[in-house]
Amino acid sequence: MARQKAATFGEFASHASAQPLRPSPQLAVTVRMAPEVMPTDPQAGLLDGKSDDEVLDILGPSDADDRRNRNDEGPNSRKAAQAQTLIAIAEAGDLFHTPAGEGYASVPNDGHTETWPMRSRGFTGWLRRAFYMAHGKPPNAQAMTDALEFLEARGQFDGDEYPVFLRVGEHNGRIYVDLVNDDWQAVEVSREGWRVVAEPPVRFRRARGMLAIPHPVGGGSLAELRHFVNVQTDDWPLIPAWLVAAVRPRGPYPALVLQGEQGSAKSTTARLIRALLDPSAAPLRAPPRSEQDLMIAVMNGWVMAFDNVSRLPDWLSDALCRVATGAGLSARQLYTDADEVIFAGQRPVILNGITDIATREDLRDRALLVTCPPLSETARLEEVVMEEAFVAAHPRLLGALFDAVSTALRNLDATVLTAKPRMADFARWVTAAEPELPWQSGAFLATYAGNRQMAVEQSLEFDPIGAAVRQLTEDRAWGGTVGELLDALRRLVDDHVREGREWPQNARALANRLHRVMPALRRVGVLVEFGNRTKKGRAITIRRDPRATVTSIITDTPAFKKGSGDGDAPPEPFVHPIVTSQEPSLLGDDDGDDGDGTTRTSPEPASQRSDGLERRLGRGDAWEPGRGA
Fold first, then answer.
1. Can you tell me the distance from the alpha carbon of 529 to that of 545, in angstroms, rounded to the nearest whole number?
2. Cα–Cα distance between 420 and 428 in angstroms, integer?
3. Which of the residues in the chain have pLDDT under 70?
4. Could you tell me where the beta strands, DSSP code E, fall in 242-382?
5. φ, ψ for residue 132 (rounded to 5)?
6. Count of H helices and E strands in the chain?
7. Helical H runs in 464-612?
8. Do 553 and 421 touch, CB atoms closer than 8 A?
9. By C-alpha distance, which of 174, 605, 244, 346 is closest to 187?
10. Residues with Cβ within 8 Å of residue 195, at least 6 apart in sequence
């Protein structure tokens, strides 16, 4: 079903009042949106004592029928007439349903098109306003209820099926980012560049608390982001990499885990990272207390950011893995016994805390572990100064981010990783975007491989079973049963470890723990192999793999310049220079699109574009990344 051209609200209401409506063939009623004849109407006296035929001559058949029905049936007839009028108003829009069967409506409003769930306040408010604009009075509650129930069924059974997106969507190989502004504009990112569009071909819904992002401008670089995030220098490439991945409509997404001591600006870093792409009235939240709370959060925001996490329960760690890499969450629908509300999708996740957060291997293997170093008093900035600088830089940072995403779309098909890590889709996507990122080509994969190896080492360090198995096989192999292994490991640890809750108390519990830690042990060259069951128990052998080394992830695809590779010609190789300290205009070099349909392309590589944050802040040592590392 083609999307109808948006009209102004006044034009729509005027048209609805003046024109007889054409109801659906399924409706066996005639709907007329003319005002009711009230006792104060000048014609009212003319109808007193008139016959039906005389009334027809004065009012016409439709008005006479309406009057007769009102006289015969009373207020119920007026409620039915209002419900039919509401239905007719809504059908001027586009009623449809999602793949999950949820009823939605795309409706015209003040020159643009808005998409709302049928039962949302956005749609019901639009419908009440349209009725009031046409009749000068609000509809009654029962008429609204009757109309909404019918419209929901109409969209579910008669309407077309469309996906509905939150903040980030995709269509025909292009990515769309909802600006969440009053005009319902979006940024369209393609292989050729990006632009702001007034009527995106995808349908976005908006949740309460979502905030607008500014129009992006060109000429910026993500190198400017370093002044707003307090992370170690070695970890810096992981921040732009996570952001580039977060603009992709489909994951998997790595969980960004920010760790550091008190006062290391973890919360500020997390808040500004989220604000760049998905600002919210509540940017940072406490960890959810149940899976249902988590599901509500993921259905109402694109980026999930949880603040000051002290400990992740096992259920929450597993649920975050499903959210980041793709699985469903469900909860019972209110006021029903058997119906479920289901979320099936993926979301980018940010966690921050002082202690080690991602303690379970599943989450740690899907995470980017970033350290926030301590901040000295001379390096700390007032929050108002930092936020003012971020607001000024926000459009340039968005433009640079969309430059990188456009580059990824253009290079993805030709990007091949010779070794694929756990989050292979993420690694390949960022590698494809690397020519537009502010570092030398290959820096991301080297940083990512080192970060994953560090995660493995920390996982084994914090796991008493993993640490004990490594110690047991330092200089020799070991063989026996699982029960015998438990006795051998007990002799290697202290009493407080054996008596702790993490220590297995029987062979079966040990076998389960080994299955969890085996991937990490394999990464450091320790092979655990289970054998057949014997009379003594299940056999197991542990040995060192002399061939095991830390895997280096490299790509055999060269970096590409933006705009190269037209037709069948091979892409021109591009060597990324080191980031310079050149000072561009503080307002940025905007060669972008402000909604006029012109596609914006970058005039030069990202690493040749710098920022002027030090000058704007009036100091040369503004929040130095890696200070104290």
1. 12
2. 9
3. 1-79, 327-344, 547-629
4. 255-259, 304-306, 327-332, 340-345, 349-353, 367-371
5. -65, -40
6. 19, 19
7. 464-472, 482-490, 495-498, 507-523
8. yes
9. 174
10. 187, 188, 592, 593, 595, 597, 598, 599, 600
Identity of residue 504: P
Q: Give me the residue label for tokens 């509500």.
A: 296
The domain ranges of the chain are 9-162, 222-442+554-575+594-617, 455-544
pLDDT digits (tens, 9 = 90+) for 154-184: 998 999 999 999 999 999 999 999 999 999 9
Question: Which one, of 225, 242, 235, 243, lies nearest residue 622 by Cα?
Answer: 225
* C-alpha distance from residue 325 to each of 291, 346, 348, 369 (Å): 16, 6, 9, 17
**In whole angstroms, what is the distance from residue 385 CA to residue 258 CA?**
23
- pLDDT confidence of residue 26: 40
Distance CA 68, CA 51 (A): 11
- Of 208, 252, 35, nearest in space to 116 by CA: 208
Return the amino acid letter for 594: D
Q: What is the CATH number of domain 222-442+554-575+594-617?
A: 3.40.50.300
Q: 340 Cβ partners below 8 Å, 6+ apart? A: 330, 331, 332, 333
Q: In the block, which residue shows the tokens 């976005």?
A: 204
Torsion 341-345-349-355 (CA) sign:
positive
The runs of H, that is alpha helices, within 287-382 are: 291-299, 314-325, 361-364
SS3 347: coil
CA distances 533 to 77, 204, 368, 530, 536, Å, are 79, 56, 39, 9, 8
What is the share, in percent, of the chain residues with pLDDT greater than 70? 71
Question: What is the model's pTM?
Answer: 0.73
Backbone φ and ψ for 625, nearest 5 degrees, come out as: -65, 135
Record the tokens describing residue 61, joined without a space: 């058949």
Report cis status (omega within 30 of 0) of the bond before 421: no
Q: At what angle do helices 52-59 and 61-73 cross, to 10 degrees?
A: 130
Contacts of 40 (CB under 8 A, 6+ apart): none
Burial grade of 334 (CB within 10 A; 0-12, 13-18, 19 or more): exposed
Closest CA to 141 of 97, 207, 75, 199: 75
Query: Which of 536-571 are b and which e, b meaning 16 or more Cβ less than 10 Å from the residue's Cβ?
Result: ebbbbebebeeeeeeeebebebbbbbbeebeeeeeb
